[in-house]
């Protein structure tokens, strides 16, 4: 038997991702919270939830900081200990880790972890500037470097070192749009062809429009408890058996490698060790495809293939639904959307649905072990979690 349960997920909720015109982030979060509470009628949130951790990247989008208390107030939980967790696009992956600390410490038997971001009311130029704040200021932002630019440098390095092609990046977009077309909560629910990707405009060579994730609004949350009492709330708990979080240099220019993220490798090592499994035991994964090159690099760093062989793995079809290790069955950040603060727990939401057999048209058959991988910025933060369903 692999690792012992650290904490258990007893419920989960997610708003639709996309454009929520005229709504505030807190209202969008209420939709995710309502779903999670309705799924778990045996839980009395006001009485039993003792801690709340909310991933939220930036106050610039809505001119609203202090998101922990704001969300607690708006979901009817005034009084609960609520804290905002910030790790750029990895904010709710880090919130999940923090929630695990809270439950494992014994201080909170039940905790809500989630995330939210409202972005689409801003122009692309504004969003690009706010996102760039997660990169190094003096040596990156100051010189005008943006996230598409940073990931484009990783893409050219990978092409140079391993012969990876624009077609292989494009195939990741086609796959994730296919998966997203099966997810009613995805931002962009449409199939695309390789030609759609290859003929789309360059954003930062070699990355084109369809290699980039979407700017979206959305919220997600999961409810955690101690494994010993999970059955009090649900017959179908999903256990978290591995957690890992790590950092690397904030600036890409100071990293050991441009074709691999050390933070991912360290976080994965910790999570696999706690879960007592090797990467080949993972049935499906949600990974941080902020750009198609990112997903390809994560295949290698998470051990789904050897270094330099991410392109081959895409070509083989192994990461498509029906393949050996389906990746981003939700549609990923590319098609489901990327409301940055909400992404980490939205990945956990997808794994929760999959492991409890509720993923409908995109259900992975007999899925037992799932993995999520969420990064902040260009990878200065990474969080990896491993989940198991014992039913
Ligand atoms: C790629 C990007 C620059 C495109 O923005 P844009 O050029 O302003 O695009 P617009 O919002 O004007 O949309 C133009 C069209 O492209 C579509 N579109 C926008 N972004 C898209 C994307 N990433 N993929 C596919 N289509 C996209 C829009 O739906 C719209 O389609 P329509 O004309 O049929 O309505 C923007 O989506 C982006 O910055 N993405 C990356 C976000 C990011 O960096 N996240 C953090 C990662 S660490």
What's this entry about, in short?
With 391 residues, the chain is of the alpha/beta class.
Helix content: 25-40%
Q: Number of helical segments?
A: 13
User: How many domain modules?
Assistant: 1
Query: Major β-sheet, in short?
Result: 9 strands, mixed
CATH topology: Peroxisomal Thiolase, Chain A, domain 1
Poorly predicted regions = none
Strand segment count: 11
User: Considering the protein shown, what is the CATH homologous superfamily?
Assistant: Thiolase/Chalcone synthase
Description:
The chain is of the alpha/beta class. It has a single domain, classed as Thiolase/Chalcone synthase (Peroxisomal Thiolase, Chain A, domain 1), CATH 3.40.47.10. Helices cover 34% and strands 17% of the residues. It is built from 13 helices and eleven strands. A nine-stranded mixed β-sheet has the order 3-2-4-7-1-8-11-10-9, with helices on both faces. The protein is globular. The chain starts with 6 loop residues before the first strand and ends with a strand. The site of coenzyme A has 15 residues, from helix 5 and helix 6.
Key phrases:
single chain; 391 residues; Peroxisomal Thiolase, Chain A, domain 1; nine-stranded mixed β-sheet; two-stranded antiparallel sheet; 13 helices; 34% helix; binds coenzyme A
SSE map:
Layout: E1 7-14, H1 25-39, H2 45-48, E2 51-55, H3 67-74, E3 81-85, H4 91-104, E4 110-117, H5 124-132, H6 147-162, H7 166-180, H8 194-198, E5 202-204, E6 207-208, E7 218-225, E8 238-247, H9 262-275, E9 284-286, H10 292-301, H11 310-316, H12 332-335, H13 343-355, E10 369-376, E11 381-388
Parallel strand pairs: 2-3, 2-4, 9-10
Antiparallel strand pairs: 1-7, 1-8, 4-7, 5-6, 8-11, 10-11
């Amino acid at each position: 038997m692999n690792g012992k349960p650290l904490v258990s997920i007893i419920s989960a909720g997610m708003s639709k991702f996309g454009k929520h015109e005229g709504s505030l982030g807190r209202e969008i979060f209420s939709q995710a919270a309502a779903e999670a509470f309705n799924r778990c009628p045996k839980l009395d949130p006001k009485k039993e939830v003792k801690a709340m951790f909310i991933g939220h990247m930036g106050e610039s989008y809505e001119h609203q900081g202090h998101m922990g208390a704001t969300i607690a107030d708006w979901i009817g939980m005034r009084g609960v200990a609520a804290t905002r967790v910030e790790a750029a696009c990895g904010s709710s992956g880090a919130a999940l880790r923090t929630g695990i600390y809270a439950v494992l410490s014994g201080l909170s038997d039940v905790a809500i972890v989630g995330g939210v971001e409202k972005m689409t009311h801003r122009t692309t130029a504004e969003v690009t500037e706010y996102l760039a704040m997660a990169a190094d200021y003096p040596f990156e932002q100051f010189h005008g470097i943006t996230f598409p630019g940073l990931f484009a440098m990783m893409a050219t390095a990978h092409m140079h070192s391993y012969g990876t092609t624009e077609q292989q990046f494009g195939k990741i977009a086609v796959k994730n749009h296919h998966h997203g077309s099966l997810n009613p909560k995805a931002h962009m629910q449409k199939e695309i062809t390789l030609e759609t990707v290859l003929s789309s405009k360059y954003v930062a060579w070699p990355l084109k429009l369809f290699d980039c994730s979407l700017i979206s609004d959305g919220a997600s949350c999961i409810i955690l408890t101690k494994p010993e009492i999970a059955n009090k709330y649900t017959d179908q708990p999903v256990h978290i058996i591995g957690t890992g979080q790590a950092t690397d240099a904030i600036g890409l220019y100071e990293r050991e490698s441009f074709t691999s993220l050390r933070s991912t490798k360290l976080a994965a090592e910790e999570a696999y060790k706690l879960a007592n499994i090797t990467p080949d035991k993972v049935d499906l994964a949600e990974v941080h495809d902020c750009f198609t090159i990112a997903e390809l690099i994560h295949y290698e760093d998470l051990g789904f293939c050897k270094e330099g062989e991410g392109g081959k793995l895409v070509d083989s079809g192994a990461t498509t639904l029906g393949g050996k290790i389906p990746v981003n069955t939700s549609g990923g950040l590319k098609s489901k959307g990327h409301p940055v603060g909400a992404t980490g727990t939205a990945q956990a939401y997808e794994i929760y649905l999959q492991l409890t057999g509720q993923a409908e048209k995109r259900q992975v058959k007999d899925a037992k072990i799932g993995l999520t991988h969420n990064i902040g910025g260009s990878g200065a933060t990474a969080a990896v979690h491993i989940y198991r369903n014992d039913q």
